[in-house]
């Protein structure tokens, strides 16, 4: 795999072959290294062998100080197994190893090279072989490979970590030796043993050793070299050996020998097996809810499009029809009957499973293509999107962005084909022309007509035009359109949504006079925002996103919907005295108010006013109360809202990639306004640099602004006052020089996040012009 691991393999292999005859070599001359290049000079060949032998001895000292020799009765004070050596960091151990080499300190008999072996072979050997310290034996596997294995007494077992350790060690634990590399078979065996013993120590220790010690990790999941692997592979090794002969670095000559390589297939299988087990175990170990509380599925009638089908046939590699497939379902999740929506509180937060380095380096366009590839004779290609719990929300949102763009381009081609054959005029975009003074009426009317005539047009790229303005929509105009729509439609005065006095969230008005079609259109607006990668200033409680994903609201969802009511009901559940009926004097009839302040009554069960809440039925009362408020009272409005949302997102992987908390971040953006991150990620153009005085003054002013003014600055420069998914470091802002000092105000290209900033003569003038620009800007024009 790499030079370090190969040298380590060579050194340990030589130790195994010479352990019986030379247990404590102390001179580099006692070791021999095979000559890699036969045509090199004699002097150079000797130098190579001397340096390699010295390197191997130093490495032996290094691993002896860190890992020990594996002998529990070791008395070498320079060995970790003796208990006399102090704990060293890798850097300290490296320095100490060099000192021990020069003083020719004592070396123990270390463990030989470890390779995968079957349990049957190990058990048979252990049963017939006496345990003798310092011996190794050769066995032949069923594949015909000859391997070395350590004797029982020279191995460090996992048993020493058990509370009751005994002098007689079970030979079957040889496969858990300290320092053994991970293989697919070993992962399966460790998991089976954990299930049998109901103790996770053997697995956690093996994983901990592998991922904290680079030398062990480098030898994990290595491909076995078989007799048939002497064709092209041998030629490649020979070529590498010849190339090494011309190298002037002796260390590089030795360390660059090609090893067996990584067994990618077995590593993938083991990762899939182990990662899913840990993920689902984390959910099952936490607080789980019933899997019966599901929203009714929304069925969207498919529309026939013969011309679109013809285009898909002509361009099969780029059509969404060929990329569409049934969402991936994990067989283990099906077997366990578990869903992430049912995990109310996992044992560990889901964020602990995020792999940030992987998420930052993954090529999402390639991974999405692998995820969409159908099964063929070779099998599915590996895709991290099938394991979304290890990816951050920002990375998954990028995958969703690519998927939506492919869908948009597909619809654009279909539209052009319609125009070519004369079936319809060309409509490559979803174009909305609205008036600022009547933005709600114009937008909803046009969307309603599109949804009725051809709902597939909703999956085209959105282009917005404000009547009487010259702005061309490259993204910025759409952002302002959504902002204006959200500001008006979620205003309580509009009557479709309500907002509590003591809460900042909005909720469906159960007594709204608006029709179901209006709520459907609002759902379409929310779906279009996600589909076009636009962040909205929507303050829904978390239960809305859970319901959109298919999970009905429950008692725990009241916490952020109405914290006062939640705390009161929670106190009732925790009340244990026998006088609950007299204390609360609550029946199964509840009272709530509408938007006009009128009191409304509802019986949670038949004749509810005659049934008092007692210790026996208080849980039933709480569940029925929450179910009415979060589900039944707004059932009509929410079903229409969800239907509009699904009309846009039904073919995307939104439900399989994102948890409800991540969907909220996808809609509303991040809540972390870290402008220091924005400053680090900002680029400069037109003559500005980070060292320009105007730029320094600009950031000094920005960091001193209030949160409200910072929101205005984001609105002015990007068209939205929301932080993108992943934080402001993912917002690529560009500040360009717009001429010398002048009286003009700063301007911005919101479609491209570009701020045009003149080089003002002093900081005071810059602050004055900037504050006027962000406070009084509205509308679009051509510069």
Automatic annotation (TrEMBL):
UniProt KW Glycoprotein keyword: no
Class in the EC hierarchy, top level: transferase
Keyword Cell membrane: no
Location within or outside the cell: Cytoplasm; Nucleus
GO biological process: animal organ development; nuclear receptor-mediated steroid hormone signaling pathway; positive regulation of macromolecule metabolic process; protein polyubiquitination; regulation of circadian rhythm; regulation of primary metabolic process; regulation of signal transduction; rhythmic process
Segments of skewed composition (Basic and acidic residues): 1-12, 229-241
Taxonomic superkingdom: Eukaryota
GO molecular function list: ubiquitin protein ligase activity; zinc ion binding
EC number(s) from the headed UniProt entry: 2.3.2.26
Active site: 751 (glycyl thioester intermediate)
Catalytic activity line of the entry: S-ubiquitinyl-[E2 ubiquitin-conjugating enzyme]-L-cysteine + [acceptor protein]-L-lysine = [E2 ubiquitin-conjugating enzyme]-L-cysteine + N(6)-ubiquitinyl-[acceptor protein]-L-lysine
Cellular component GO terms, alphabetical: cytoplasm; nucleus; proteasome complex
TM region positions: 519-545
Gene3D superfamilies cross-referenced by the UniProt entry: Hect, E3 ligase catalytic domain (3.30.2160.10), Hect, E3 ligase catalytic domains (3.90.1750.10), Ubiquitin-protein ligase E3A, N-terminal zinc-binding domain (AZUL) (6.10.130.10)
Residue ranges, annotated region (Disordered): 1-39, 229-253
SUPFAM superfamilies cross-referenced by the UniProt entry: Hect, E3 ligase catalytic domain
Keywords attached to this entry: Biological rhythms, Cytoplasm, Membrane, Metal-binding, Nucleus, Phosphoprotein, Proteasome, Transferase, Transmembrane, Transmembrane helix, Ubl conjugation pathway, Zinc, Zinc-finger
Protein name per Swiss-Prot or TrEMBL: Ubiquitin-protein ligase E3A
């Amino acid at each position: 795999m790499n030079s370090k691991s190969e040298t380590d393999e060579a050194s340990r292999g030589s130790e195994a072959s010479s352990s019986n005859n030379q247990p404590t070599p102390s001179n580099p001359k006692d070791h021999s290294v095979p000559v890699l290049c036969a045509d090199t000079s004699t002097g150079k060949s000797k130098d190579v062998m001397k340096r390699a032998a010295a390197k191997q001895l130093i490495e032996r000292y290094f691993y002896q100080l860190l890992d020990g020799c594996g002998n529990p009765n070791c008395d070498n004070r320079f060995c970790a197994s003796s208990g006399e050596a102090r704990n060293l960091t890798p850097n300290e151990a490296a320095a100490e190893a060099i000192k021990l080499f020069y003083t020719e300190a004592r070396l123990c008999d270390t463990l030989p090279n470890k390779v995968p072996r079957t349990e049957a072979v190990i058990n048979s050997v252990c049963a017939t072989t006496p345990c003798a310290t310092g011996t190794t034996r050769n066995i032949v596997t069923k594949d015909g490979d000859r391997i070395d294995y350590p004797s029982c007494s020279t191995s460090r077992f996992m048993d020493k970590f058990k509370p009751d350790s005994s002098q007689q060690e079970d030979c079957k634990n040889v496969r858990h030796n300290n320092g053994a590399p991970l293989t697919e078979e070993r992962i399966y065996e460790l998991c089976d043993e954990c299930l049998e013993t109901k103790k996770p120590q053997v697995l956690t220790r093996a994983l901990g050793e592998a991922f904290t010690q680079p030398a062990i990790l480098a030898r994990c999941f290595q491909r076995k070299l078989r007799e048939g692997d002497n064709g092209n592979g041998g030629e490649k090794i020979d070529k590498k050996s010849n190339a090494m002969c011309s190298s002037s670095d002796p260390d590089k000559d030795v360390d660059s020998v090609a090893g067996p390589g990584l067994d990618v297939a077995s590593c993938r299988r083991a990762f899939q097996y182990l990662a899913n087990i840990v993920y689902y175990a984390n959910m099952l170990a936490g607080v789980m809810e019933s899997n019966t509380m599901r929203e009714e599925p929304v069925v969207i009638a498919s529309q026939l499009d013969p011309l679109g089908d013809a285009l898909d046939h002509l361009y099969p590699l780029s059509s969404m029809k060929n990329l569409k497939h049934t969402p991936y379902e994990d067989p283990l999740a099906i077997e366990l009957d578990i869903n992430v929506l049912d995990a109310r509180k996992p044992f560990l937060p889901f964020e602990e499973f995020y792999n940030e380095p992987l998420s930052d380096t993954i090529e999402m366009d390639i991974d999405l293509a692998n995820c969409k590839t159908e099964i063929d004779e070779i099998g599915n290609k590996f895709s991290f999107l099938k394991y979304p719990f290890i990816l951050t929300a920002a990375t998954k949102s990028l995958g969703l962005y690519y998927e939506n763009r492919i869908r948009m381009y597909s619809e654009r081609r279909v539209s052009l084909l319609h125009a070519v054959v004369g079936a319809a005029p060309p409509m490559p975009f979803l174009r909305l022309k609205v008036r600022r003074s009547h933005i709600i009426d114009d937008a909803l009317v046009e969307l309603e007509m599109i949804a009725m005539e051809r709902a597939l047009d909703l999956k085209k790229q959105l282009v917005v035009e404000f009547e009487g303005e010259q702005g061309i929509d490259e993204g910025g105009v759409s952002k302002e359109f959504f902002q204006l729509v959200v500001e008006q439609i979620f205003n309580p005065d509009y009557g479709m949504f309500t907002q509590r006095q003591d809460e900042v969230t909005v909720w469906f008005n159960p007594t709204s006079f608006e029709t179901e079609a209006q709520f459907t259109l609002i759902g379409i607006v929310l779906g279009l925002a996600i589909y076009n990668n636009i962040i909205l200033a929507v303050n829904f409680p978390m239960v809305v996103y859970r319901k959109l994903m298919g999970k009905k609201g429950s008692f725990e969802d009241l916490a952020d919907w109405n914290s006062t009511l939640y705390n009161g009901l929670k106190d009732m559940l925790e009340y244990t005295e026998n006088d609950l009926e007299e204390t609360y004097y609550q029946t199964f009839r509840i009272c709530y108010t509408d938007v006009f302040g009128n009191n409304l009554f509802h019986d949670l069960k038949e004749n509810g006013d005659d049934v008092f809440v007692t210790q026996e039925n208080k849980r039933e009362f709480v569940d029925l109360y929450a179910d009415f408020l979060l589900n039944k009272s707004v059932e009509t409005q929410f079903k229409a809202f969800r239907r509009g949302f699904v009309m846009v997102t039904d073919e995307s992987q939104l439900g399989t990639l994102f948890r409800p908390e991540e969907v909220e971040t996808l809609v509303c953006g991040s809540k972390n306004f870290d402008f220091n991150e924005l400053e680090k990620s900002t680029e400069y153009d037109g003559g500005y640099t980070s060292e320009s005085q105007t730029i320094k003054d600009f950031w000094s002013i920005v960091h001193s602004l209030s949160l409200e003014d910072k929101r205005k600055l984001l609105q002015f420069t990007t068209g939205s006052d929301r932080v993108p998914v992943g934080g402001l470091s993912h917002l690529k802002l560009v500040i360009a020089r717009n001429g010398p000092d002048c009286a003009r105000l700063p301007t911005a290209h919101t479609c491209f996040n570009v701020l045009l900033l003149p080089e003002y003569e002093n900081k005071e003038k810059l602050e004055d012009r900037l504050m006027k620009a962000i406070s009084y800007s509205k509308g679009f024009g051509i510069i």
